[in-house]
């Protein structure tokens, strides 16, 4: 996959979830400042991928909150999503045309999970 090659993650150790359990990112973050151009390119590519990979939507949305104040902790969390994708390349949705197609959607909320503004993740 081109995305993994671009960020030099071919043959990386895979993970079973796109977001680490119990991880709490904040705007301040931890570590040194990261190149924002590279991070924004990665998040943009991941946003495009969410069309066929709804399993990464939460993680990508979470990372999108930190586009302006980037630290190493944000970068490592974004790379975790790539490591997850690397291990789940066979996952994804295939959309086909049908006159009688129906689409169902479900959502969950994370009340107060945003440590910076204390807003719900879904709204």
Task: Please specify the SSE layout and strand pairing.
Elements: H1 2-6, H2 36-49, H3 57-64, H4 72-87
Q: Give the low-pLDDT segments.
A: none
Total number of strands: 0
What series of H and E elements makes up the topology?
HHHH
Helix count, per DSSP? 4
Separation, N- and C-terminal Cα atoms: 32 Å
Helix content: 25-40%
Mean pLDDT: 81
Count up the domains.
1
Description of the molecule:
The protein is mainly alpha-helical and 123 residues long. It has one domain (1-15, 31-123). Helices cover 35% and strands 0% of the residues. It is built from four helices and no strands. It has helices at residues 2-6, 36-49, 57-64, 72-87. The protein is globular, with a radius of gyration of 16 Å. It starts with a helix and ends in a 36-residue tail after the last helix.
Summarize the structure.
The protein has one domain.
Quick tags:
mainly alpha; 123 residues
């Amino acid at each position: 996959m081109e995305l993994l090659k671009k960020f030099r993650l071919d043959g990386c150790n895979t993970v079973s979830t796109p977001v680490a359990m119990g991880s709490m990112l904040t705007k301040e973050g931890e570590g040194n400042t990261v190149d924002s151009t590279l991070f924004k390119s990665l998040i943009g590519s991941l946003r495009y991928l969410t069309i066929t990979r709804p399993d990464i939507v939460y993680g990508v949305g979470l990372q999108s909150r930190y586009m302006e104040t980037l630290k190493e902790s944000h970068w490592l969390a974004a790379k975790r999503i790539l490591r997850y994708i690397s291990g789940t390349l066979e996952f994804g949705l295939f959309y086909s045309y049908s006159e009688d197609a129906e689409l169902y959607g479900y959502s969950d909320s994370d009340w107060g999970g945003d440590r910076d503004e204390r807003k719900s993740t879904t709204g």
